[in-house]
């Protein structure tokens, strides 16, 4: 399935991910083949307990990429659906499914216009997926629409602090503020993608307006000995002192 309702930034991000899919997998594919593990340092779901028991639940991975999370969810007894804005990423997911001998629905669409029925899912999750590259003012209400009452929305992503301390000139994180906190929303990266972030208070107000209650905000700290294909050693040390990654857990009323 595919959705034609794409914003200007969704079209840019589709082109970006279609073009860089191979490079991304060359750098990260082996690192993220750990099953149900979250984020920059692949901390296990068993440790973080973000989703809980998913057996028998309808779960959407919002920005499924090569489908690793969906295949892990399937093994855990869930009924997964993978959505991605990039056809190249979905091609990777299909190839991974064929290699594993499994199958589940794959949807080619933006998280800002999800072509699924109202109240059709128990869980929507994303691990640095579509929420990073979609406008929160569009995707949060969409997630609320497709979740059943009591359904969980959980996703990993960056933090306002990592946004306001990133030094574009040095291409690294600073221990000094580089830009205002208020007014965070959209960033067009030098590589050609468009990313999004909100101040914490605005996230909270948006969740409430969209019919969510907040269960947790996990500010992730890399464990001792952590490695990552996404961040350098210096950046990992930075993240030991300040939150570079967060996990929101909100529930549909």
Q: Could you give the order of the helices and strands?
A: HEEHEHEHEEHHEHEEEEHEHE
* CATH homologous superfamily annotation: Vaccinia Virus protein VP39
Number of helices, counting only DSSP H or I runs of 4 residues or more:
9
Can you name the CATH architecture?
Answer: 3-Layer(aba) Sandwich
Number of strands: 13
Q: Give the overall pLDDT as a whole number.
A: 96
Q: What is the percent of helical residues?
A: 25-40%
Unreliable spans: none
Instruction: Compute the separation of the termini in Å.
Output: 28 Å
Tell me the strand percentage band: 15-25%
Shape: globular
Describe the sheet with the most strands: 7 strands, mixed
Gyration radius from CA atoms, angstroms: 17 Å
CATH topology: Rossmann fold
* Spatial strand order of the main sheet: 5-4-3-6-7-13-12
Q: How many structural domains does the protein architecture include?
A: 1
Q: Which structural class matches the secondary elements? A: alpha/beta
Q: What is the CATH C level class, in words?
A: Alpha Beta
Description:
The protein has 253 residues and is an alpha/beta fold. It has a single domain (8-252), classed as 3-Layer(aba) Sandwich (Rossmann fold), CATH 3.40.50.150. It is built from 9 helices and 13 strands. It has a 7-stranded mixed sheet, sandwiched between helices. The chain has a two-stranded antiparallel ribbon with strand order 1-2. The longest helix is centred in the N-terminal third of the chain and has 21 residues, at 8-28. 37% of the residues are buried. The mean pLDDT is 96.
Question: Can I get a quick summary?
Answer:
With 253 residues, the chain is of the alpha/beta class. Helix content is 34%, strand content 25%.
